[in-house]
Amino acid sequence: MNVLLDHFPEFRDGFIGTVSITVVSTVIALVLGIVVAGFRVSPIPPLRFFGAAWVTLLRNTPLTLLFLVAMFIVPEILFPGMSAFVLGSLALGFYTSAFICEAVRSGINTVPLGQAEAARSIGMTFSQTLRMIVLPQATRTVLPPLSSILIALTKNSAIAGAFSVTELFGWQTLMSEQGYAIAWIFVWVAAAYLVITFTISGIFRLLERRMEVAR
Amino acid sequence: MSGVSVTKGENAGAASGDLVVLSNVNKHFGALHVLQDIDLTIARGEVVVVIGPSGSGKSTLCRTINRLETVDSGAITIDGKPLPQEGKELARLRADVGMVFQSFNLFAHKTVLENVMLGQVKVRKTDKKAAEEKARTLLDRVGVGSQADKYPAQLSGGQQQRVAIARALAMDPKVMLFDEPTSALDPEMINEVLEVMQQLARDGMTMVVVTHEMGFARSAANRVVFMADGKIVEEATPDQFFSSPRSDRAKDFLSKILHH
Question: Sorted alphabetically, which PROSITE patterns does this protein's record hold (chain B) (predicted)?
């Protein structure tokens, strides 16, 4: 019981760490995922190829391996001195972007072809059509899988703890080493994760309801 | 209606007035040769109605004119300019070619007014106020002014199709393409759409209309193009075509649709 009270500042830091890496990687993943989904349905073949390669590569690489590359190889050859937090967020964001891309693409496919044809017929360019006509109508379909993907992202952020990023799972390791009862440590860590994941599903429930009204 | 067919003769004579020219156009869908050596010239101000049995390629023909369908060979020019490749230039050209679809294709997440404003604001870069004014005028003109703030799904099919016509007109197109505009409508709503189209024809709009509405073809067309199996079988004035078709294929088609 007193593991939480004795080490509350560390626990709070871990919680904030997990929330931060989750938020930052979510932003990276959403931006990249939507852009790459656009590439995958683009009329320009090189962009389509790039999109397919992006998804294939990132979706099929184990996340731990991506973290290894981000933490040890990227600073070596590209950005020396980058913080573990940024590198971890990038690894997690890139990885998740592949899944978001596919969810968005499935949403795009549910929008009737006639909508895009009508947009093109009045002279809208491909990117205007995608931004103003197709994506807004795809959003409703994309929300449920998106919420699952972001919850998975939250839990995946625990891997960053193994690479000296301050987050919840790191607190667990620390407390175990100090000899606290493992069951209670896990109860508090699990509770903290639940707070985050329930918040995510709550936000998405709200969004879904709002989208429903909008039609 | 014979007066209309006389105008047609004059139009066809004015070669400089050619707005849409298809020459030797071919297209395949896999093994199916949907357009076979199509030559078709549409003069400025002319109303051309394309009729023919299902699968004859008439919708495809209509869609090639604004390059919603690409062609395998042949050339299509609009106002003297050949259709460009996919990209900004094609988008600019499409803005000058109005298209009305069988299934309306109004933007489902936008109100009727927004549907008619969107192209003006985003493509023509008209300012919002002028665009709204023009949109409301057009909506009044097609008789759905009171529905401006509703979403497309709240409108009847006939109303949706008239909004779609207003949306196309908002771009000040040089030519309007109608791809079976009344085929998805309940019978009682067909006339309200045809009346709008007839008014357009009277106002001098250049129109290519793929339709099964023989009444419209008779009353509004300068020329009837009859297609079957991917070929243009016959071109004639409506009077000539309906009273004395030359080809057996057209005779057969007309006997099936006119007498039952």
Answer: ABC_TRANSPORTER_1, ABC_TRANSPORTER_2
